[in-house]
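User: Predict Riboflavin biosynthesis protein RibD's structure from this.
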Amino acid sequence: MNIHEKYMLRCIELGKKGLGITAPNPMVGCVIVHDHKIIGEGFTSPYGGSHAEVNAINSVKNTELLKEATLYVTLEPCSHFGKTPPCANLIAEHKISEVFISIQDPHDKVAGKGIEKLRASGCKVTIGVLEKECRLHHKRFLSFQEKKRPYIILKWAETKDGFIAPETKMREKTPEPVWITNKHSKQLVHKWRSEEQAIFVGTNTVLEDNPKLTVRNWEGKHPIRIILDKDLKVPVDFHVLDSSVKTIVLTQINDSSKHFQDVDYEFIDFSLPIAQQICSVLYKHSITSLLIEGGTKTLQTFIDVGLWDEARIFEGAITFENGVSAPEISGKLLESKQILTDTLSIYLND
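Assistant:
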């Protein structure tokens, strides 16, 4: 690994500090180097705030050094006015002499224009440092820009004998949710919720478990709740309709008298494949990542059409003998590890 790659690796480390708070903006990291020493660092502020390059430049104590400095950044600096001024302009104004960029921004308002501005100002620009690593780091943003859909993570827990939920008779005896995994795995799931922009479940999961779908066993921002409710069966007193968190309900009922205040309603055609329609709705709402925690039917809907990027599957130590079978999935095993009595396996859609 050469010195430029080491500085870019530091940019990735910084960018990770924005996980769960920058969306729909990318979680960019930036480092400024002068005479082989880091003199400034920054990462993207929560959405609406300063970008990584601005924070890095503002952290430099002696701005006179910027004329002789080198800037490293995981993603091409923006070149347009949005909620903040263009970062490419700021870099040019400070006459930073050299910039190393990992990947070009595919956003149609940037797409090379930031690089053009920098070069036009006399800045030497190098592209492609740790490109593979930075594409992985920016997987949510890149999925949204390139595939026009959020980065989709499937998550479920199954028993040792392959069931995701107990049979109906058992649910009638014990209406409370039956936990397949231990408390440590449960905490990890809440951490994941804090990292993704939205969480999605189907009608049956809501009716059976009355979940809150919030972050409770971890510090972090609650995800936007996406609820599939074809016929608006979810009762008004259920947690997902409590207005505590932004919630979007996907339905076929276009009747405002049945809609609740502070809940967004989007209409889809249930006679057509729904996974693609759901992705289109989420793209419209600028949602860059989605954690799906639904039941087998909901999960399998996305699996069958290949609309998923990661699957995070827990196997608990208990058995049901009978019940609802877990989804069927195939992919590239990325990682498998023990969480005390549970096994967590992470697959990539290859």
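The first helix runs from residue 3 to 15.
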